[in-house]
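Homework help thread (please don't just give me the answer)

Our assignment gives two proteins as sequence + structure token strings and asks us to describe the second one. The first is just a warm-up. Here they are:
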Amino acid sequence: MSKEKFPSLRTLRERQTWMPPSIREVARRLGITPVHLALVEQGKRVMGDSTLGRLAMLYGIKENAIRQAHYESQRLEKLGATLEGSNGNTSEETRRERTDTD
């Protein structure tokens, strides 16, 4: 049985049909800066519990789903940093290597 992959926070934002999926609009509604939201979506910053709760309400999904998406974003960022550090390449170099081998 395969594990279902949770969508990222960015994917959840982009799936919203009742409002423009603008990072600025979502950040405005949450009372945070667009830069902070972008960093959270990239897994580079942590979003507080109350903000995660407001985001779940805004997107009309269960708070647990938002928490899982947030956790997944952080996990992928840590994995990327680990992989990047293991070969000494920058993210851009790693992307080029993956593209060259495909």
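The one we have to describe:
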Amino acid sequence: MVDEPKGYVLDSFALLAYFGNEPGAETVEQLLGQAQNQTVTLHLSLVNLGEVYYITQRERGRDTAIATLALIDQLPIHQQAINGHGCWLPLLSRPTTLLPMLMLLRQHWHNSSSDL
């Protein structure tokens, strides 16, 4: 039996920290490198993707929000639709770590004046 790579679920603030080069960005960058090398798998719900778009659009404008979504599409992240109770079951059947970037990142993002 082949061991499947460890899985991580990214939330919107993990990606916002990564793009904003904020606390936690290094962790996300390391996970992206591991995902590129297929030693871990990364997942993102489409709800969280929508949050990234909404927050980026509100804080940085529509063009930046669209560009951010295009960049996310290029990353080694599996985007997961929310389709009822079973949407996360494939992830929970193997070791999965939720990677939350606490509310501190939310406040830091809103106070940040740097561009993506």
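TA reply:
I won't write it for you, but here's a hint about the kind of observation we're looking for: The CA atoms of residues 64 and 70 lie 10 Å apart.
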